[in-house]
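In response to reviewer comment 3 from the previous cycle, which asked for concrete evidence that the modeling workflow produces usable outputs, we include below a single protein chain processed end to end. The sequence was submitted unchanged, and the resulting structure tokens are shown without manual editing.
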Amino acid sequence: MTAPLDVLVVGAGPTGLALAAQLRAYGATFRIVDRSVDRVRESRALAIQPRTLEALAGFGVTDRLVERGNPAMRLRMHLPRRVVTLPLFDIGCRDTPYPFLLFLSQAETEKALADHLAAHDVPVERGTELVGLEREDEGVACRLRRRDGTEESVRACYVVGCDGAHSTVRAQAGIGFEGYAYPQTFVLADLEVDGLEPDAVHTYMTGAGMLFFFPLGAPATWRMLAMRPPGASDIEVTVRLLQDIADRYTADRLLLRDPVWMTDFRLHNRGAAHYRSGPCFLAGDAAHIHSPAGAQGMNTGIQDALNLGWKLALVRRGSAPEELLETYEAERAPVGRGVRRFTDRAFTIGTSHNPAVRTARTHLAPHLAPLALRARGLRGRVFRTVSELDIHYRRSPASGTGPRSSRWGCPRVSEAGTGGGPKAGDRLPDLPRGLQSRTTGPGYHLLLGGPPHLWPDERLAPITRGRENLLTVHRLGAQSPWPHVSHGLVRPDGYFGYVARGAQLEGLRAHLDRWCPI
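The workflow returned the following structure tokens.
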């Protein structure tokens, strides 16, 4: 009998492609299938956050994304009697190589990831649908159907549903999808707009709602997003309808033309009751859907995938205990819930017809928003939240702290000036610049601060022996940003799994023995 796959990835959007890229990097056996015969050509998601660019850098695709995208740095708020220009990501992001919001079509993001897989001889099996799965003692028996009607049975140890809001994996696994639909209908279009200042995000705040224009670049210069006016819910989406909406929402003389893609849609706020049921996992839209406020959706999905992929691969090769897989939901479900709360609040403020909310949006916000966003501390915290740089797993069972202190003796990388250094579960900052690029290779990375003579090979041998292919040691020496003798273990997804102050390594060894046994 043929040995089962390590993982069957269902869905080849950005989430599934990112998961496949990480599984390949760790040598897992897998297949990736998608019911669609081709990748998306229209631009659904439109922006990539700094944290996602960091996370994808290890695959060599980030430079291509940045080259093709538009790193917008300004927000133009069109208020009733004035226009306020505010910088985006100008503060609070000193510790990332990508201190900007990158506007890029989802089609381009998928193409970059798919090209990466193709360059490593990983086929994406399109036109292939999961139609059934049945749990077995050691995995899952999956039934796949191709477009010509032929079927195939595939055995896999794990199945990951990256197959969107109508996930077959979620339904087959019996996982609930709880939440609600918003009553409003929206229009979305990629097109050309005459009369807009380039290289900026434009938002129009009115009593009827909010109108957005995002600098997309390709397949068209602009992405338009707006709420349908009352009474226009059944009208076909045409350039004339889009122009009418723009004329209603703004007094600017904007000319809309040459649409590449137009549609309308309803929004939902829903989350999976669990991210795992036995050998079945959910990631991306299969686990959480919400409004596009803050450009969080695709980014959250990609980071779901990169949290899960290395764990599945290491468990299958015997380099991690099965217990590690339990940390996926413990770490990512709180992130998903937080994104749903954040986007719901932003969406409600921007679309509500409640008289009090409308008054706040049209009369108070135009005066208070510019003042609030000019406050450096507040703006820094907002930008770090939206950019997803502040996501952490401090409460994860896989985050461990040394017996003396979790402090590294340096200011935390933050515009707010809070004290203390990175804690177990925090993201590795890119300070000194280039530190992240040194730790993008597969596996764990051990960072050693303090004089190099404190870390001779014979001291490290009990820790590194047997882990040579999974643990890379970095003696930071004079380049260490931490003035005290410290050490930290960076996980494969770029977060600290363990931190300690001092030169004692017993705690680190115990942590590795638990989560990365020889």
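The first strand starts at residue 5 and ends at 10. We consider this sufficient to address the reviewer's concern, and the full set will be provided in the supplementary archive.
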